[in-house]
Amino acid sequence: MGLEIVEIRIPPDSKTIGKPIKQIPLPKGIKLALVIPINRKPVIPKPSTVIREGDQIVALTSLELEEELRANLTGI
């Protein structure tokens, strides 16, 4: 099982906006590496990091889990 780096932008209609990462069901075995907010400095995410509209998430995941990860983070 190979790993890949993916980038996911949080859309305006996402159900995850305003939620801390710890409240978002993420697939087991993925790693969120970076959150890049609009007009702010990138941060290494913690469980308490709150997702905001337009955030760009950089994650490490397997190809098999990428679709589930995208669905869970975008909340669509």
| Rounded average pLDDT | 93
Text of the CATH class? Alpha Beta
- Looking at CATH, which topology would you report? Alpha-Beta Plaits
Strand residues, percent: 25-35%
For the sheet with most strands, the description reads: 3 strands, antiparallel
Shape descriptor:
globular
Helix content: 10-25%
Q: Which structural class should the secondary elements be placed in?
A: alpha+beta
Q: Can you offer a commentary on this structure?
A:
With 76 residues, the protein is of the alpha+beta class. It has one domain: Alpha-Beta Plaits, CATH 3.30.70.1450. The chain is built from one helix and three strands. A three-stranded antiparallel β-sheet has the order 1-3-2, covered by helices on one side. The longest helix has 9 residues. The chain is globular, with a radius of gyration of 11 Å. It starts with a strand and ends with a helix. The mean pLDDT is 93.
List the helices and strands and how they pair.
Elements: E1 3-9, E2 31-36, E3 56-62, H1 66-74
Antiparallel strand pairs: 1-3, 2-3
Sum up the structure in keywords.
26% strand, 76 residues, Alpha-Beta Plaits
In short:
By secondary structure, the chain is α+β, with helices and mostly antiparallel strands.
